[in-house]
Amino acid sequence: MWQTCYTPQSLDETLQLLAEYEREACLIAGGTDVVVEYDRGLRSEKVLIDISRLPDLDQITQDDQNQIHLGPLVTHNQVVHSSICLDRAFPLAKACWEVGAPQIRNRGTVAGNLVTASPANDTITPLWALGAKITLQSVQGSRTLTFHEFFQGVRKTAIKPNEMIVDIAFPAMAGYQVGTFLKLGLRRFQAISIVNVAVVLSMFGDTVTEARVALGSVAPTIVRAEDAERFLSGKVLTKDVMIHAGELAAQTIAPINDVRGSAEYRRYMAATLTQHALETLAEGTEADMVPPRPVMLWGKTDGHFSSGLSQPPRIIHDEAADQPIETIVNSQPHTIHGANDKTLLRMLRENTRLTGTKEGCAEGECGACTVILDGIAVMSCLVPAVRAHGSEIVTVEGLAQDDDTLHPVQQAFIDEGAVQCGYCTPGFLMSGASLLDECPQPNRDELKQAITGNLCRCTGYYKILQALETAAKKQAKSK
Ligand SMILES: Cc1cc2nc3c(=O)[nH]c(=O)nc-3n(C[C@H](O)[C@H](O)[C@H](O)COP(=O)(O)OP(=O)(O)OC[C@H]3O[C@@H](n4cnc5c(N)ncnc54)[C@H](O)[C@@H]3O)c2cc1C
Ligand code: FES
Ligand code: FES
C-alpha cells in the first residue's frame, strides 16, 4: 500500500505535488480502480494524492456554446442524476447508470474511468460517440486532446505523470439528435462489459443525416464503426438497414477471446447490440431503460461529498510520522493512529474495533463492507482510511437508536428471517437503511436496485427483499 497520503485542498497545490513527485505518486479520486490495483500488487507508488475533496470540481455545466463540461470529480451517480446529462447527453447518462452498483457509482468518477482506459470501461464509448475532448493541466500549462489522441492502447493514455484531467467537454446533443448506450455483461449490474455500443444519430424527419457509432470491449481501444456510420447516413431506419448497419459495425472490430466471451461471440453481439440500439432509437424507447427515479444510495444528500475544508489547509498523513486521523464514527469522535496506510474498512475493524463491517472480497464486488461516508453509501474496502479525516461515518453498529431500538431494516431482517450465516447482512442493512433515507416509499424495483451491490451466498434474495419491503411499509406507517 501507500505510505504517505496528501489531501490537497486546491488544484494548484495538487499540480505542485504532481510536479514534485511525478511517477512516485498516484492520484486517487474515487479509488474504485486504484485501491484494487494496490491490493493486487499492481501499484508501488508510496505517495497517494487524494483529490476527492478538492472543492467545486464535481460540477456538470453547460456553457453558452452548448458544450457540456464535466469536472474531474463528477461521479457516475451525479451524471445519472443530472438533468443536463439526461436531456442532452443521454448515452453518457445511460452508461454511467450501467457502471457497477450504487456504492461504486457514488465514488467512481468519469475522469477515473477515462484514465484507467480499459477498452471495457463504459463511459469512454458514449463520450467518444459524443465527440468529447479532455483537458489536461500541469504546472507548465494545459492542453486539450481528442479521444483519438488521448487513448493509445489497452490501459495506455497520453497523460503525463505531472498532469491531471481538469475538464471533459463535449457538445450537448441538439434537438434533432438522438442517442443511446447498450451494454452486454454476464449479469445486469456489477458486470464488466463483454461488448458495449453507443450510437448518436442526427435526424431529419425519419432520415439519418449523420451517425456516430462507437464500440467498446472489442479492440485495444474504443473503435468507431465508420463503415456503419457512412452506410446509415441518408437512410431511413428500416429493419434491413438496421441489420446491415449491425453487420458493418461487427466487421470493424478486432475482439479477443477471454473469460467473458469468445471473439466470435463478441462479433455476433456487436452486430446485435448495434442493431438493437438503432431499434430503440427508431422506436423512441431508449429512455425507458433508465428508471424514472434511479436509486443512488446517497440518503438525503445531493450526492456531493463535502470538501472537509474545516480541516487544516494541507493534510499530510505519513505512516512514519503517524499523524492521527480525526473522524466521527457513529456520532463518536475518534483519534486514530496507525491507519494511514490502510483502507477505511481495515481502519474500522482494526483500529476502532467495529467489526460489524465485513470484508467479503476487498475489491468492491460484494457490498459486505458498505458504510455511510458523509451521508453517502460507499464500499469501505475501496476508500483510503485517511479519507475519513474530518468526515463522519456510520457503520452497522450505528444503525440502532440510542435506546437500543433497532433500525426498522434490522428489525425486519429478524422478523422475516432474512439472515442465514449473517456475513453479508451488515452490508444489506446499510444499503437498505440508506435507501429508506433517500426514498421512504420504494417500489419493488427500487428495492432491487438498492441491493445490486450486495451479494448473499446463502439466504437467497427473496427474504431479503421481503424484509426491505416490510421495513419500508413500517417506516411509512410510523410517519
Ligand atoms: C466492483 C467494481 C465494479 C465496477 N464496475 C464498472 C463498470 O461496470 N463499468 C466501468 O466502466 N467501470 C467499472 N469499474 C471501474 C471503476 O469503478 C471506474 O473505472 C471508475 O470510474 C474509476 O473512477 P475512480 O474515481 O474510482 O478512479 P480512481 O480509482 O481514483 O483512479 C483511476 C485512475 O485514474 C487516475 N485519475 C483519477 N482522477 C484523475 C484525474 N482527474 N486526472 C488524472 N488522473 C486521474 C488515477 O490516478 C488512476 O490511474 C468497477 C470497479 C469496481 C471495483
Ligand atoms: S465490496 Fe468491500 S469487501 Fe466486498
Ligand atoms: S446470509 Fe450468508 S452470505 Fe448472506
Structure notes:
The protein is an alpha+beta fold. It has two domains: 59-289, CO dehydrogenase flavoprotein, C-terminal domain (Enolase-like, domain 1, 2-Layer Sandwich); 322-478, [2Fe-2S]-binding domain (DNA polymerase, domain 1), CATH 1.10.150.120. It is built from 17 helices and 20 strands. A five-stranded antiparallel β-sheet has the order 4-5-10-6-7. Strands 17-16-20-18-19 form a five-stranded mixed β-sheet, with helices on both faces. Strand 18 and strand 19 form a beta hairpin.
The total count of helices amounts to 17
Question: Radius of gyration, Cα only, in angstroms?
Answer: 23 Å
So what's the CATH class of the largest domain?
Alpha Beta
From the N-terminal CA to the C-terminal CA, the straight-line distance is 47 Å
Structural class: alpha+beta
Quote the beta fraction.
15-25%
Strand ordering within the main sheet: 4-5-10-6-7
Name the CATH homologous superfamily of the largest domain. Answer: CO dehydrogenase flavoprotein, C-terminal domain
The main pleated sheet reads as: 5 strands, antiparallel
What ligands can be seen in this structure? Answer: flavin-adenine dinucleotide, FE2/S2 (inorganic) cluster
